[in-house]
Write a structure and sequence with these properties.
alpha+beta; L-fuculose-1-phosphate Aldolase; 7-stranded mixed beta sheet; 10 helices; 45% helix; 12% strand; globular
Length: 278
């Protein structure tokens, strides 16, 4: 009798634990896919700019955008300013032709068409990063493909195409500064999560700002790991696409890192960083 009671109790506890685990999974998925308010989205966009600068994915150049929730064919992008300096007042609203809805005297980025044309054809994309990260340029400018070396950049296993602006439009200043070039880049990206840009940089897309920021940071780390691995000589392995798909099933994969990065932004400068200042 005692044995039966014990087994029944274990079964009940297991059922509760299983349901609780599923509940937490559903809650995590729900929180990751919840549509943010415009105010929260702007706050995250400002944070995304500064985090990418802090992590050396962006410097004085590059940008991150977000699809405007509830407004069909609109997206948010800062005015032409260094990412580390972006504030709420710098965020502008654009239509899918790359036109500012209300410029208020602010100058937009020339390459806003990267964002407008990708949003036009990729309904699954809600955030886009355009960067010039140095670790990515060797893969953009050579025949060596970028491979998935690191589980935090598993999305690379599905392929990272290279967009060659010269092949698309002949002689240019290498900037995607009109809708035609934006469409060519979007076509090269296709259904992938990132594309390299020959002699230029990269574009990274995701379902949310935290995921776009996370992918951009770990894409940089993945490229550096691949370069280090190649320098060892011998056989190099990479993540299988089937394993990558399992890894990418988590819609809030970068949420823990996102909270850490935001916390770092709010910290005062360290004693070492301020030493010697008047």
């Amino acid at each position: 009798m005692r044995r039966r009671t014990f087994l029944t109790s274990c079964t009940s506890l297991l059922a509760v634990a299983t349901l609780d685990g599923r509940g937490r999974a559903r809650q995590a998925a729900s929180s990751a896919t919840t549509v943010p308010t415009p105010e929260a989205l702007i706050d995250d966009l400002v944070a995304g700019n500064r985090i990418l600068a802090m992590e050396n994915v962006l410097d004085g150049m590059g940008h991150i955008s977000a699809r405007y929730p509830g407004r069909t064919g609109r997206f948010l992008l800062a005015r032409s300013v260094a990412p580390e300096l972006v504030t709420r007042d710098d965020i502008m609203e654009f239509d899918l032709d790359g036109n500012p809805v209300d410029a208020k005297g602010r100058t937009p980025y020339k390459e806003r068409f990267i964002h407008s044309e990708i949003y036009r054809v990729r309904s699954d994309v809600n955030a886009i990063v355009h960067c010039h990260t140095p670790s990515l340029i060797p893969f953009a400018d050579s025949s060596v493909p970028l491979r998935a070396m690191y589980h935090m950049a598993a999305f690379v296993a599905e392929g990272v195409p290279v967009f060659d602006i010269r092949a698309a439009a002949g002689t240019t200043d290498l900037l995607v500064s009109d809708a035609k070039l934006g469409r060519a880049l979007a076509q090269a990206l296709g259904s992938k999560h990132a594309a390299l840009m020959r002699h230029h940089g990269a574009v990274v897309v995701a379902t949310s700002i935290p995921n776009a920021v996370g992918r951009s940071i770990y894409l940089d780390l993945n490229a550096r790991i691949q370069i280090q691995t190649a320098s060892l000589g011998g056989t190099m392995t990479s993540i299988d696409p089937a394993d990558a798909r399992l890894r990418m099933a988590d819609p809030s994969e970068y949420s823990r890192a996102w909270e850490l990065w935001k916390r770092k932004l709010s910290r005062p400068p360290s004693r070492e960083a301020t030493a010697g200042r008047p």
